[in-house]
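G., the chain you wanted modeled:
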Amino acid sequence: MKAVYLSDDGICSGVGPGQVVIDTSTIDPATVIEVGEAVDATGARFLDCPVSGSVSVVEAGNLTIMAGGTAADVEAARPALDPIAGRIIHTGARGTGAAMKLAINSLVHAMNVALAEALVLAERAGIDRKVAYEVFASGATGAPFVHYKRQAFEDPENTPVAFSLDLVQKDLELITGLGERTGTPQPAAKTALDLVREANEEGYGERDMSAVAEFLRGRAG
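Predicted structure as tokens:
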């Protein structure tokens, strides 16, 4: 990430006054601060604007964008962000967009592990996979994540990878690192990280995040 900005032919070599650099990466807030200061030195402005949403949400132009930076810079960036955004939420100063993205991904990855665990539990208790998922999707647990991951959990062998377990591990390492620096207890994130690391060590890294369920099925025998 730093090389993309700071190398001799990086982003900072090609921007200047009057421009706003918008970064949508999922990265550590400390990295955001460092590259943002480098952009400042060019006379350009910088926003950390990670996004939340599935592939279908991207295609519909309905992403949630978490914008860290000054309010004036967020307004200046709206013409570029509005076509892909359902909502643009100004989270605060530079770095807060990146921090909010890690917080929301902490919830997503915890939900993913919990959903996989619950689904395998239902299957092992004799309930058809699709019947169990219908209950999850219909009741109090029917969050948007449960709906847009439905095909991946129900038919893992025939569903394209949307977000790999290698990337889940990267996210969870960033999340737990931020938790350590802020003194935040993170039992769910640490449990999820341990499980995902174990799955990746067994060769699941390039598979979709929903493959946690397949990994648990294998452990169940």
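The mean pLDDT is 95.

Shout if anything looks off.
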